[in-house]
Amino acid sequence: MIRLHIRQKILLTMLVVFIPSLLFFSFLIISSTSEILSANVTREVRGLAAKSAQNLHDLVQNSGKTLLVIAKTPSVLGFIDALNHHNIQLSAQRLDKMEKDLLNVQKLDRTIQAIRFIDPQGRVLAKVREGTIIPRKGSLVPYLGVREISSKKNRQFFKDAIILKKGEISISNMERGWMGGKAKWCPAMVRFSTPFFLTNGQCAGILTINVWGATAGRTINRLISKNEGTAFLIERNKGNQDRNGIYIFYQDQSCEFGNQTGSKITVFKQYPKIITDAWMDTDEGVNIQPGSRDIIAHHFYSPFHREDKGWVVVVNARRKFFMSPLTTIEHRIFWSTGLILALMITAAFWFASSITRPIKEVIDGTHSIGRDLNCRIPVRSDDEVGALAQEINLMAADLQRHLDDKKKIAENICQSEKLASIGEMAAGIAHELNTPLGNARAIAALARQDLDSGKCDPVALDEDLADILEQTGKCSQIISGMLSFARQQNPECTYQDINELLESSISLLRIRSRGKGVSILFEKRGKLPLAKIDGHQLQQVFVNILLNAIDALDQGGQVAIRSRNILDKISIQFIDTGSGIKPEQLGKIFVPFFTTKEVGKGTGLGLSVSYGIVKNHGGTIEVESIQNEGTVFTVLLPTGDKLDG
């Protein structure tokens, strides 16, 4: 009789109820301390994000003021005045003077990377960059008599600036500039632009300064040390999905400006949706990173004065660093209760292990049985777990027997279907063998007559023997193909050429197709990659489909076979010109024992067996049929090692 112990072990373990009470008390102290520390860190991180956003606001405001100051310098205003008087020579002279003064301004203010003056047609008339005047080598500007430097008429910052009113400033996206001559990206920058107008109200052009973004980057990087966490600046740009969510400044610079560098790195790929949604939809807030439990604060600032476009400052505080004081508290609590817990934990561990060890063995055993039905779970006790292990072992043994029986039945069905196919082809093969055998017999009879009459010509005899060998070789080839198809083979997957299998299958059925007056066309659309398959099984599939197609055709009918490679699959299509399959029968053709042939002419297993073979190879069989037009069977097989079995 089976003795039951698990219930008594559980009851005995539950006697130690004060252990949970002690643990709960410790947890209460630790959780309270954790909440206080989290609140302090959250407040600090939120303040850092807000302060950084304010710093960005100040940088933008200062850059805008700098632009307006440059716009009011005498050399710039003098150039606009010359344009008002339509004096080409004076305008050209003052353009040179303005260009030199802009160079001096750029040298004095190292936050400015470049300064441009662009006319209303987008032609860059003056440009200084990083302490150098850029020469004019472009097309001639008629109203000045000088050449342009380049054209910016298709750039978005120019289109935004040219429609501004007097005194207004447009701000571009922050982005890296491409150094064409050096074939590299320069650091991030922002363009500030303002327009100029002639006395008649027409636009005279725009003045643009490129401001280095390094100042903003340093501000972000100083927010928090690497040990404490990370701080970065991202872009919110719902109108431009290529820029939405890109990193503008990040400790790992390879992540920055994924839209320009081609890395396509965005926050959406590295942070959960619940957090990125907050960054893209709210002005400020605090979130907790799933898993690490890091505290993440963000603050939105838009220099464009738009809710859907701007910059988001993100500060990610590492929980492990800021919650380190909690570790000290935990150690003190653990040490103070260590002596009390030592004996209790030892007892609890023994009870728990005595329960869980046999259960774990059962779980591991079931996993092993799932991989190999010959495995068995060791039975170490006569309690409930031992009884469970015994029942699982019995179930595995029964299942193994059923699977073996099922496999044998499937192999028998497959072989039976082969023999049925051979039976259908037998008459044609007998006719095909009769011709070369008759020729060989006639040649032998003539040679015998020559020998009997004493007129033996060695040359003629040699020719007769060669003819006999040729005719018997044909017979041998026909019989060899049939024996190879009929032989019961052990499943073996090797790399094979599908086109060669199709050709051998066509060869087996060529006699039957000729007998019915049906033509078989084989169209190879390119070289196929090798597939790891069981060639004998797949040949049976091809023969079954071709036999059905030939049986469905009248004299003059045609079966077209097309093979091609589609991505990582091989497609074989069997297209006949028969009467098609009725719609109500189309869904049943792969059901075992379903057949539309006359009684005694089909078992109804051919397509069912074929379906199973193709499925075991990781492929599919698809069928399309239109009544009175024909039927298309498509076999799709994976290439290489991608088959299931």
Which features does this protein show?
single chain; 645 residues; alpha+beta; Beta-Lactamase; Heat Shock Protein 90; seven-stranded antiparallel beta sheet; five-stranded antiparallel beta sheet; flat
The CATH level-2 architecture of the domain at 492-645 is identified as 2-Layer Sandwich
Strand content: 15-25%
CATH class of the domain at 492-645: Alpha Beta
Task: Kindly provide the radius of gyration, computed on alpha-carbon positions and rounded to a whole number of angstroms.
Answer: 43 Å
**Poorly predicted segments:** none
Describe this structure in words.
The protein is built from 17 helices and 21 strands. By secondary structure, the protein is α+β, with helices and mostly antiparallel strands. Among the domains are: 72-216, PAS domain (Beta-Lactamase, 2-Layer Sandwich); 492-645, Heat Shock Protein 90 (2-Layer Sandwich), CATH 3.30.565. 29% of the residues are buried.
Secondary-structure map:
Elements: H1 6-14, H2 18-71, H3 74-84, H4 88-108, E1 112-118, E2 124-129, E3 132-133, E4 140-141, E5 146-147, H5 156-161, E6 170-171, E7 175-179, E8 184-197, E9 203-212, H6 214-221, E10 229-237, E11 247-249, H7 258-261, H8 267-270, H9 273-281, E12 284-288, E13 295-301, E14 309-317, H10 319-322, H11 324-371, H12 384-453, H13 458-486, E15 494-496, H14 498-516, E16 519-525, E17 531-533, H15 535-552, E18 558-566, E19 569-576, H16 583-586, H17 606-616, E20 620-626, E21 630-638
Parallel strand pairs: 16-18
Antiparallel strand pairs: 1-2, 1-9, 2-3, 4-5, 6-8, 7-8, 8-9, 10-11, 10-14, 12-13, 13-14, 15-17, 18-19, 19-21, 20-21
